TrEMBL record:
InterPro entries listed in its UniProt record: Prob_Methyltransferase (IPR053223), Put_SAM_MeTrfase (IPR004159)
GO function terms (MF aspect): methyltransferase activity
Domain of life the protein comes from: Eukaryota
Keyword Methyltransferase: yes
Transmembrane segments: 24-44
One GO term of the biological process aspect: methylation
Xref: PANTHER family: OS06G0138600 PROTEIN, S-ADENOSYL-L-METHIONINE-DEPENDENT METHYLTRANSFERASE SUPERFAMILY PROTEIN-RELATED
Pfam families referenced in this protein's UniProt entry, alphabetically: Methyltransf_29 (PF03141)
Native source species: Populus tomentosa
Keywords for this protein: Glycoprotein, Membrane, Methyltransferase, Transferase, Transmembrane, Transmembrane helix
The name this protein goes by in its record: S-adenosyl-L-methionine-dependent methyltransferases superfamily protein
């Protein structure tokens, strides 16, 4: 069943192929009509002959019986329509959260209310109402979500960014919008770009509420992750040498990687980019890089923004909010680790492949391999995508936390093929 165009005046009315949801609803409606008609046929043909003759000679009783049958058919149709409406909502993902419960905040109820389309059912999508976007796992954290949505409308937002991040890390993403004003922090002492890339950042412009550390010195003494040890010191130490000076064979130099690119590198995406050092080095080479991060144990997002770079506050469980085939380069490190569930890494890799253009580079930077089994599983996963291995190094490094233990890391630069 193809698409049909009907020329009307200056416009064109298009009737497109039905969607899965609308097709399912149509099938159920057809089934309902056939059922009610068969019921009516049975009702009018199953009576004995003498009873039919009796009805023929008693027209009033005949009319009464017919009315009763018609009423029964109408009740069947009404029940079928209610069932179809319920099935349609289930197919379209409606009503995943019960907002009628007493402990649900009024603002959350208002945000999640369904809004009828002004012109009725949309012929392209098959929907009849708009539903607010909120993560499906929010249902499991309804109490926390209701607490997050408890605020004074048009007043200041509560200082609860850590509560919102906790919801995100539980899969409640995206969060609902709120009608309150976020606390303003005076951003004084900011430098002009590109000087801002490597200048000290004032602690007064960062938000420390909900964090264990309350200053940058404390952060630089902690091992925040395998890739972030002293990483908030951007004026001295190793952070000033990253990507331009190698400490081992697993550390690739940015200029060497850029020389491998075909068609040039213009825009990139850094997954789990810490304080934004990779984006800073790329900015020096006129390449725009978006850094994905969360504020886990440190004010990463504000720190990156203070350097004049672009932070994207997003968990790795969220589908990347970019169109297909848009990035020239994607950089990632051990932040990709999916733990003990290989399917999680597999879903993530497919989303990385989706947003990377053909011929683009995927730079896997010092990915920690806990054992040979994990290294083998990662290697097989990468090989499934058919990427060309431009650089591939497996090596050992001493644990940066100072334990002296030797750890295995994989670094690679891979080129996405052009698929037909």
């Amino acid at each position: 069943m193809g698409s049909v165009s009907l020329k009307i005046g200056d416009g064109t009315a298009r009737f497109k192929r039905a969607s899965f949801c609308s097709s399912a609803v149509n099938i159920l409606m057809l089934f309902s009509v056939l059922t009610t008609n068969l019921f009516a046929l049975y009702a009018f043909t199953s009576s004995p002959k003498d009873h039919q003759t009796h009805l023929f000679h008693n027209p009033h009783k005949n009319i009464s019986l017919i009315s009763e049958h018609v009423s029964s058919i109408l009740r069947e149709i009404a029940a079928s329509q209610k069932k179809l409406a319920r099935v349609e909502k289930e197919l379209l993902g409606y009503e995943t959260m019960d907002i009628s419960r007493l402990n649900i905040a009024s603002e959350l109820k208002l945000f999640l209310q369904h809004h009828q389309l002004p012109l009725g059912k949309d012929s392209r999508t098959g929907i009849t109402e708009m539903v607010a976007s909120v993560g499906h796992s929010c249902e499991k954290s309804a109490d926390l979500l209701s607490q997050y949505m408890a605020y004074k409308v048009s007043g200041p937002c509560p200082g609860d960014w850590s509560l919102g991040q906790k919801l995100i890390l539980r899969g409640c993403e995206p969060l609902p919008r709120r009608r309150c004003f976020a606390k303003s922090v005076q951003k004084v002492g900011l430098y002009r770009f590109p000087v801002s890339l490597w200048k000290p950042i004032s602690e007064k412009i960062l938000t420390w509420s909900g964090l264990g550390c309350k200053n940058l010195d404390c952060l630089n003494r902690k091992k925040l992750s395998r890739d972030c040890v002293g990483c908030f010191n951007i004026t001295s130490g190793y952070e000033t040498q990253r990507f331009v000076k190698a400490r081992g064979k697993n550390d690739f130099i940015i200029d060497d990687v850029l020389a491998l690119a075909s068609g040039g590198i213009r825009i990139g995406f850094d997954i789990g980019g810490g304080p934004g050092t990779f984006a800073a080095r790329m900015a020096e080479r006129n390449v725009t890089v978006i850094t994905n991060t969360l504020n886990v144990d440190a004010p990463f997002s504000e720190f990156i923004a203070a350097r004049g770079l672009f932070p994207l506050y997003l968990s790795l469980d969220h589908r990347f909010p970019f169109y297909d085939n848009v990035f020239d380069l994607i950089h990632a490190s051990s932040g990709l680790d999916g733990g003990d569930k290989p399917e999680k890494l597999e879903f993530l890799m497919f989303d990385i492949d989706r947003i990377l253009r053909a011929g683009g580079l995927f730079w896997l930077d010092n990915f920690y391999c806990a054992d040979d089994e994990k290294k083998t599983a990662l290697t097989r996963l990468i090989e499934r995508f058919g990427y060309k291995k431009l650089k591939w190094v497996v090596g050992e490094k001493t644990d940066t936390a100072g334990s002296g233990k030797s750890e295995v890391y994989l670094s690679a630069v891979l080129q996405k093929p052009a698929r037909v």
